[in-house]
Each structure stands twice: as C-alpha cells, then as structure tokens.
Amino acid sequence: MRYTIGLLKGDGIGPEIVDSAVRVLKAVGKKYGHEFIFTPYLIGGAAIDECGMPLPEETVKGCLASDSVLLGAVGGPKWDGLPGNLRPEKALLGIREAMGLFINLRPAKLYPALKAECPLREDIVAQGFDIMIVRELTGGIYFGERGYRNGKYGEEAYDTESYSRMEIERIVRVAFETARKRRKKLTSIDKANVLETSRLWRKIVHEIAAEYPDVEASDMLVDNAAMQLVRNPAQFDVIVTSNMFGDILSDEASQITGSIGMLPSASLSGGSCGLYEPIHGSAPDIAGTGKANPIATILSAAMMLLYAFSLNKESESIVNAVDKVLEAGLRTADIARGKVALSTDEMTDAIIRELSV
Ligand code: NAD
Q1: Is the pLDDT confidence value at 158 over 90?
Q2: CATH number of the structural domain spanning residue 206
Q3: Is residue 110 part of a domain?
Q4: Atom 17 in ligand 1: residue holding the nearest Cα
Q5: Are 225 and 267 contained in the same domain?
Q6: Is the same domain home to 190 and 289?
Q7: Atom 36 of ligand 1, nearest CA residue
Q8: What is the extent of the structural domain holding 16?
Q9: Residue 269 to residues 10, 167, 225, 260: CA-CA distances in angstroms?
Q10: Quick one: 37 and 127 in the same domain?
Q11: Ligand 1 pocket, 293 CB below 6 A?
Q12: What average pLDDT does this structure show over 244-257?
C-alpha cells in the first residue's frame, strides 16, 4: 500500500525526532511492503522565519490533502516576544481547528523496564499503570474569547471557557467507546463544584453513561485527579476531560512514566486520518545536542499506523521494538540515570535493528 504523510518538523528538537520517526517508518515500509511518501511543510517558528506567519496556508492545504500528518514540536525563546496571534504555538491550535481534530488520545503507561525511572514510591510503582487520557482538543478556554480591557483595577486580561452540548457529547462518546475496548472503566474529570461548563459536562457524561451499562463511569474533580494520579495511578483506565485539564494532567501522567520523552499522542476528528505528535514541546534546552529521546515520536508514528491506516501488526512491531530496546537497558539521557546515554540517532538505530529482526 502507498500512504502520503505530511511532515511538520517545527522547531527545537522537532526536526531531529521527526527524522527519527521517518527512518523507523521507512524500515517498517521496507519490512512489510508499504510505501510511505513524506512531504515536509513549514510550521511554528520555522514558518515565521521563512514566511512571517506560524501556519502558512500551504501547510494547511498540504495537511488536509495528506493521508496523515506527523508533527514534531513548535516554539522556542527566539519567538517568545511575539504577540499571541503570531507565536509558534498559535499554529498548533490553527492546524487542530483546520483539520477538525477534536479528539486527543494520550496513552500513559509504565514500561516495566522503566520502573526505576518512575519518581513514585516503590509500592505504587509495583502496581504499574496503563492510562488512556481522552482530551477534548478544539474547545474550551484555549479557543474562547480573550483579550485585554480596562477593569476595576486598571489593566486586565481575560480568557473565557465555553463548551457546547455537541462538543461535550462527541468527545464523551469517544471516551466510552475507548473504555469499552479496554478495561471498561471511565473517569470523567471536571471542576463541577465551581465551573458552569463542568456542570454541563458532568450532566452529559451521566446521560451518555446510561447507554454504556458495561462501562463503570465515575466523576472526579480535577484537583483530586491531580493528586490521585501520583497517589494511585493504577485506579485509572480511561480518563476523559476538557482541553486545558487534559493538557495539564497528561504532562503529569507523562512524568510518572519516567520521562515526557516517552509519550505519544494521536489527534483525530472521527473522520480524517489525524495528526500524530509527541506530547512534549520543542525542548530548546537540548535542541541540536543529540540528547532528545525520539521514542515519543516513534510511538506516535506507531499510533498513526494503527489509527490512520489500520496497519495493526506494523504498529505493534514498532511498539515491540521499543519494548525490547528498553528491556535491553538502552537509554537516552532523559531516562539514563547513571547508565550510558545513547544519542537520538543511536536510539533510533537500535529500534530499527530490533524491527528488522
Ligand atoms: P518541553 O516539553 O519542550 O520541555 C520540558 C522539559 O522536558 C525540558 O527539560 C526538555 O529538555 C525535556 N524534554 C522534552 N522532550 C524531550 C525529549 N524528547 N527528550 C528528552 N527530554 C525532553 O516544554 P517547555 O520547556 O515548557 O517548552 C519549550 C517550548 O515548547 C515552548 O516554546 C513551548 O511553548 C513549546 N511547546 C510546544 C508543544 C508542541 O509543539 N506540541 C507542546 C508543549 C510546549
């Protein structure tokens, strides 16, 4: 089969980790007889430098015309002083909106080989965890009305959160379907004791729960959830939550897996083939040093094979290769803790060698 993949390398470590994932995809293509055709498009700071805007029209058109899209990361200190609508991060919101990507799947599991890297207590680590965070991606406060005004105490800034029934219903249904295919447990996270949007969210979760009697559904306040994630992560199977809560909780979940460099994500629309990216940022502090862990991006490519192209065994072969490399004790600097650290390229080579076995 032949698949076209748009590449959004972005900034910082983005180009390094996307190149790693491309090399892995090429190895999978060679092994299983698929042709992946890669076309790079500008995004983020790189696009600002080249054409004065973070998300050029050509990038949007190219992504919409591709079978799927792989993104590295955007942003960096060079562009931090720009006004909000010209910042690299604006491109992320723009491409998600343009592709209608309202579903963000963020798996966070503890690899047995990385137990020593988990910062939690030994008895908690011993239980392990395997969580799927289903984050709403195109609504809420990140997309609401915002601005500056003269308030009671002078200069004031505001952001607003709003959610429609339609936006909540469609993401909650995805979460219930996801739970159905896993351990059939769903935790909906909100702030219903304070926020009106959360009260509507919770009401809709309860309505939809009636359609899924086989799934054990419960609510949890976001402040409690932040605590429970480090106290007893094994209690979670699928989590569903709003855009901002999902953003924050998935970073917390990433840290208890050992490193943010390990976590992939898939952003889907329910129709298109989606956009796949690591959950971390552009890590400007290590860009160009060869220290970036490419695994989150390589696992994002594995999610692409599964969700966009239904190439199940090809996807599994990547996940297994990553497992084996970690079990063999190979580490990049972020997870090395005293062990010899491989560079981005060396870790990628090791994964490709496992794939070819
Ligand atoms: P970050 O995720 O880039 O980095 C946080 C820490 O984790 C840093 O110490 C970094 O070195 C480390 N890290 C991240 N990815 C790593 C990897 N693959 N291997 C090893 N270590 C890794 O977050 P930040 O420092 O808050 O943000 C840096 C820039 O990235 C900012 O401009 C921010 O806006 C942007 N950002 C972009 C995205 C995205 O493109 N999706 C997401 C988050 C932040």
Answers
A1: yes
A2: 3.40.718.10
A3: no
A4: 261
A5: no
A6: no
A7: 281
A8: 1-103+261-357
A9: 22, 12, 26, 25
A10: no
A11: yes
A12: 92
